[in-house]
Amino acid sequence: MAQHEVSAATRLAAGPDEKEWSKIKDDAPPDKGGIGYVGLGAMGGALARNLCATHSLVVHDRDYASAHALTDAGARPVGNLDQVAASCDIVFLCLPTSDQVTEVLVGPGGLADKLVPGSVVIDQTTGDPAVTRRLAGELADRGIVLVDAPVSGGVPRALDGTIAMMVGAGDDDFARISPLLASMTPNVFHAGDVGAGHAMKLVNNLMSGVQRLLTFECLALAAKSGIAPDRAHEILMAGGARNSFLEKVVGPSILGGAAAPDFSIKLSHKDVRLACQMASLEGVPVFLGVQAREILQMCMAVVGPDAEVDQAALVLERLSGTRIVSSPAIFKKPPVVNMTDATEHCPPATTPEDSQ
């Protein structure tokens, strides 16, 4: 493999494990027509593993270990974007934000300079629809198709092939990629043109973000009123307020002691913030969404941006003087609840009229 200067986009993809990647000599000849996956975090890694069950896959991530963890599923890890593009004409992305997607696609040395015309990029990031549409236009000028196909349902459903996938693509492009997407899950929905998948994902995450925080508030209110959280949960599950968050997270994890989903507060805040931004551009009021955005901002200040989003329950415990979470051991990241500045960051909970 020829040595070359590492570009900004390649550095973004290779990251701190560049020395580890440099030890790997990839002698496999380029085989155009392959499928690549870039971005192997919790969700990207699960989706890539799912895809390995039905397709040969070239994988890359800035974290050396994340890429090599997929070798047992048959994936071929490579050390940079050049090698991805040399073998693939379909490339999936699953990155933290649209900023990283932009860098990997059109930054110096990005995939747009390496993929051949006719290639397809499938972005599974929870991204900004406006950025996605702009990038799609830039790639179209080079003969490359960009579609958005984010998912919802969590890592277990990504692994077992039941996750929901919402796709933004033109009709012809959707028809071209739908058999591939259907191999990952039967729950593939064509939301509309490019950007519609990301728009629908923000709608989904706004709704689930508000639901999560409202559920914690209601459990705290029940506890403060003398109703044990597990009894409140039992009653709510039997009534009209039953929802999937109560069933799949509160029951087994918050109350039951199973590990909490590993999704950070900063990513939840990013999703809700983007949804509020989209709503503002479309002229749609999202009063609860704005409040959720501010609550998540407060929680980041209190427990840190990298804490699991369900540590928001710990913040509400402290603010209300109640107990909701069965044990802090459910969190992979040890909780550090710093309430010193919580009041400063806390959005108003009531008005004088509310208490009359």
What does this structure look like?
This protein has 356 residues and is α/β, with parallel strands linked by helices. It has 2 domains: 8-194, NAD(P)-binding Rossmann-like Domain (Rossmann fold); 199-348, N-(1-d-carboxylethyl)-l-norvaline Dehydrogenase, domain 2 (Orthogonal Bundle), CATH 1.10.1040. 49% of the residues lie in helices and 10% in strands. It is built from 16 helices and 9 strands. The protein has helices at 8-14, 18-22, 42-52, 64-68, 81-87, 98-106, 129-140, 155-160, 171-182, 196-224, 229-238, 244-255, 265-282, 287-303, 312-320, 342-345; strands spanning 34-38, 57-60, 76-77, 88-93, 120-123, 145-148, 151-152, 164-168, 188-192. The protein has a 6-stranded parallel sheet with strand order 3-2-1-4-5-6. A 3-stranded mixed sheet has the order 7-8-9, sandwiched between helices. β2 (57-60), α4 and β3 form a beta-alpha-beta unit. α6 packs parallel to α7 (129-140) and α10 crosses α13 (265-282). Residues 1-14 and 351-356 have low confidence and may be disordered.
Write the CATH fold name of the largest domain: Rossmann fold
CATH class category name of the largest domain: Alpha Beta
Strand/helix succession: HHEHEHEHEHEHEEHEHEHHHHHHH
What fraction strand? 5-15%
**Radius of gyration over all CA atoms, rounded:** 22 Å
Mean pLDDT over the residues = 90
User: Which outline best applies?
Assistant: globular
Helix content: 40-55%
- Tell me the number of structural domains: 2
Oligomer: single chain
The helix count comes to 16
* Measured distance between first and last alpha carbons: 74 Å
Give a quick account of the main beta sheet: strands, pairing sense, barrel closure.
6 strands, parallel
Number of strands: 9
CATH superfamily membership of the largest domain: NAD(P)-binding Rossmann-like Domain
Alpha-beta classification: alpha/beta
Order of neighbouring strands in the sheet with most strands? 3-2-1-4-5-6
CATH architecture of the largest domain: 3-Layer(aba) Sandwich
Low-pLDDT segments? 1-14, 351-356
